[in-house]
Amino acid sequence: MAEFHLHLVSDSTGETLQSMTKAALVQFEGVTPVEHVWTLTRTVRQLDDILESIMKKPGLVLYTLVSKEMRDVLEMGCQRVGVPCVSVLDPVLTAFSDFLGKEIRRLPGRQHMLDKNYFSRIEALNFTMAHDDGQMTDDLYEAQIILVGVSRTSKTPTSFYLAHRGFKTANIPIVPSISLPESLFALNRRTMVIGLTTSPDRLSEIRRNRLLSLNQTVETDYVDRDRIKEEVIFARKLFTREGWPIIDVTRRSVEETAAQIVTLYNRRQEELSR
What we know:
Helix 7 (200-213) crosses helix 8 (225-242). This protein is an alpha/beta fold. It contains nine helices and eight strands. Strand 1, helix 1 (15-25) and strand 2 (31-38) form a beta-alpha-beta unit. The protein has two domains: 2-111, AF0625-like (Rossmann fold, 3-Layer(aba) Sandwich), CATH 3.40.50.10700; 116-273, Rossmann fold (3-Layer(aba) Sandwich). The strands form two sheets. It has a four-stranded parallel beta sheet, sandwiched between helices. The chain has a four-stranded parallel beta sheet with strand order 6-5-7-8, sandwiched between helices.
């Protein structure tokens, strides 16, 4: 597998740059980037240190810098080293500027300002942490999205991914012989309940690996394939009976599952607003 140096230079937290890089890299097989992430880069002196590192470990340079002076210093430094230097946001910013007929403001870190959306995400994260794994079910009506499923169907990571997107999310496990909270069945349609499921074979494998990582015995009903199949069938019947959308997470990443959930949620809100 080929390795190469990848320098990511940002005047903010670097989240945007890293996300775009990740999205691009999945299109290439057999390559592994050695990432050098430079965040909160806002002085020429910082760039001098970065360029020195690029000279020692040359590779592709991607950046999100809004200051023209900083951009010029980085680009000229990369020219001297002989490595490509790309501003990943320029095509998008130019398209918006042309379409809106407005000048680009060139303010670093604007997407991370402490605005209303920022505090909404923090509120969503706090809510999701408090309502993880079936906790605090008395106020489920305050949730925007509720995920229900048997153990190890990615309920928690998906919940926190949605919370990071600003959605108040709760998740409730389906456990044999334990009744689900009554509050789950007394919600109005603005709260979106989603049933998560997966294949019994895959679920057995995940649970077995989970027990092994905890140094626990794997000879239990928790990993028994027939028992798991019963759990999955029971859960699917429940989802169908209640009319909850079902998402099979067997071959989905958390991001893909969350994207489908957001689509379903937005569609529901549009229907209710008509």
